[in-house]
Amino acid sequence: MDKHSSDITVTVLGSGTCVPSLTRGSCSVLVETGGRKWLIDSGAGTLRRLLEAGTTIAELSYLFYSHLHPDHTSDLIPLLFATKYPDGITRSEALTIVAGQGFADFFQRLKNVYGNWIELGDMLRIIEMGTAGRDHVRLAGVDIRTAPVEHSPQSVAFRITSPGGRHLIYSGDTDMSESLVDLARGADLLICESAFPEGQKVRGHLTPAMAGDIATRAGVRRLMLTHFYPVCDQADIEGECRRTYNGPLILARDLMRITLD
Q1: From the centroid of its chain, how far is CA 208?
Q2: Which in 101, 108, 161, 239 has the greatest CB count within 10 A?
Q3: With contact defined as beta carbons under 8 Å apart, do 161 and 167 qualify?
Q4: Contact, 143 vs 160, CB < 8 A?
Q5: What is the per-residue pLDDT across 208-256, written as a single tens digit (0 to 9) for each?
Q6: In angstroms, what CA-CA distances link 94 with 81, 83, 126?
């Protein structure tokens, strides 16, 4: 097996939220493994960051959506529209979207608004993952497992396992979720939302200490905090997380790149 295809490389495309920021785009992560490129979430600004990371939309094989909120999905529309430029679809294989149950209906509603501008016909495939419990699919030799988390009815966290056995967890937006602890057990990297600092918690989101508690109980090798609202820039995010987690800790920044090997 080619070593490169057995690793997982993660590039943070957006470490922020829907609140406009010159340094943090909305939520998005590019994953490279199994010889393919996988995009998780695509909030506003993702397509520009993707180019800055050296990747075009034509290189994407799979899109994963943790849930349907605008700061995670808004660049899906220009991505699909751009796929038809200039004279029709130029992809050589179908683009596959993997998301929680309810995505197909969401996409149909988008087509009711945008019509043919985002219609890819047979070149777009949608796979819905169960939201009542754990689910599993295998794509291009990569094992994908999901679990529902506490945010919205469509919310799922992802566990991506490379052909070489490396494990990446992406929480998406979530409140404290035992299902996320279970999904993340023994993972090489947990990319976990940490939207608000202690004392300013919002329902459906985690604080740094809560994210650290999940990482500790799951026994992950590394923890990356992301999805920072602007108030986080005035808080000691690392210090708050260290109250519950003492392992390797990364605070996400746009265009940060990490390889799990």
Answers
A1: 18
A2: 161
A3: yes
A4: yes
A5: 999 999 999 999 999 999 999 999 999 999 999 999 999 999 999 999 9
A6: 15, 11, 10
Checking DSSP bridges between strand 257-260 and strand 8-14, what pairing results, if any?
A: antiparallel
For residue 138, list its beta bridge partners.
Answer: 143
Average pLDDT over residues 58-69: 96
CATH C-level class of 3-260 = alpha beta
Gap between the Cα atoms of 12 and 26, Å rounded: 10
Computed on alpha carbons and rounded to an integer, the radius of gyration of the chain in Å comes to 17
As a whole number, mean pLDDT of residues 14-30 equals 95
- Domain ranges for the chain: 3-260
Name the residue type at position 176.
M
Which residue bears the tokens 């994953």? 31
d(CA 257, CA 246): 22
User: What 8-state DSSP symbol labels residue 210?
Assistant: H
Non-local (6+) Cβ contacts of 117 within 8 A are 80, 81, 84
60, 40, 26, 12: which is closest to 170 by C-alpha?
40
Largest CA distance in the chain: 55
Q: Summarize pLDDT for 89-114 with one digit per residue, the tens.
A: 778 899 999 999 999 999 999 999 99
d(CA 164, CA 76): 30
